[in-house]
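I would like you to help me understand the sequence and structure tokens below and explain how sequence relates to structure.
___
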Amino acid sequence: MTDTTQTFEERPTRALLPVPRLRRPNTEQVTLVLLALLVAAVSLGPLLRLIWAALMPDGAFDTARLKELLWSRRVLEAIWNTVYISLSATVLAVVVGTAAALLVGLTDMRFRTAFVFGFVLPLMIPPQVTALAWIQSFSPASPILGALGLSLEGGMRHPLYSAAGIILLLGLYNAPLVFLTVRASLRRLPGELIEAGRAAGGRPFRLLLEIVLPLLRAGIFAGAALAFVSSIGNFGIQAMLGIPARVHTMITLIYRRLNAYGPSALNDMALLAVVLAVLTIAGVALAGWLGSRGDQRVSGAARSVRLPLGRWRRPAQAAAWSYLVLTLALPLSALVGSSLVSGYGQALTLETLTFAHYRNALFEHGAIREAFVTSLGLTVAAVIVLMLVSVVLGYYLSWRRGRLARLLSLSSELTYALPGIVIGVAMILFFLRPLPLIDVSLYGTVWIILIAYMSNFLVLSLRPTLGGFAQLDRNCDEAAQVAGAGFLRRMASIVFPMVLPAAAAGGVIVFMTALNEIQASVLLVSSKAQTIGPMIIFLEEAGSSTLAAAVGCLMILAVLFLMLASSVFAKRLPAGILPWRD
């Protein structure tokens, strides 16, 4: 009998099989996917839903429906007015903005910083407030025209209630956009070319025509594209002046039909919104093509050159400051004057002076108070979310450069370039039905307005953040990664603190823009979700012009406070972040 027993040492050893380990998810990739889903939910999804509702509302392409709607007399008239008014306003904005940029950036004009602040200020004021201020500048309450006896008499037709009035205000409102782009191009010009022209005996006017303006062509057309986009989507000015004058544009036509017919007209209004978006993209593409024609490459270091104005300095400075008096002091003083009288049209005297409208707006009028609280809460929420999103997206765009990140950036640029009312229609279509799983509709709530803010203003937060990343060295992030720090820990302890000043600057710009926003929210507000932006138009339509003036003055004070507070910390921010800094 064989002994089969074995000692422990004599037993054959079995090869140990590797224990399968669960693969930990890549936090960085998961974050990018979540970021893509967020941007898709607030931007791409609503836009795709808009296109589907416009072209195939019943699941099939209906040519007869398109022809019937687009070839109607009212729609054709609105398309013509939109193109004509936007192009004319763009031309005016280009002339005024380019002249101001050349005066500030190329000459020895004095007090440039103060002039730049005053010139850019109208861009920060809500357009509906600007329109209201200009409307009231011709009233007897205007301290300037009223004192000169140039105000309108009772029963006279207001000159701004016309297509020419809309063009004037849109052109003046968008001139700062052209100014900023042309001034940025001036800073990149090589000073050697201008100095060589001066050494050859060229006079300043000839240098301007033969050297400076040809090199600024790309910047001028870039500013023209911005002015065109702003003009075609500016609801505040078009509504305040165009609706009383019966000058129908695409943006006011969509607004009035949705108010008249409600959600039943959404599919037809989606088609009009797509037409408006096509007009916008076509204008931008045309401006880009015109600006890229020819070879404008030059060699040399960028260096500022100041051409002496000589005996023309005083006339030029007088003309510049007179422009600010006419376009800034005149309408704002009229707005203040209207807010301080008991009844619209009264002259401002010691007998008619009252602060009742401010007390009413701040403490007594419940709808105004609730609208301001709602706007403030939505704006703060949008700023916080967009700052976080822009830092994470800026990380991928600056230090990872993936295709998905670039696609997200392009989608944010698209939603910002499209008119706000297009975004509003897209949001209604996308969120009208109850959301899956939770069976809750966001339509008529504050959440749909918040999503519209996030979609429309992501690029405003992203651009300064990218500027901050461009000035950072990635060595700290790479060292922490080698030491084993995870993605979220690196973002929280290293990346976010370093880029915080730029992200905060973007947050300030978003705050100033969103607090008084009207372009998208005018279609999204309801009895349960009012914001302060559309309140000016609602009060004016209700005949409360003096109360609307008081609300407008309060909105301007809020903007001025934010601009001045941001200027205090300007030295800690990347260069060029605050547009009103010279």
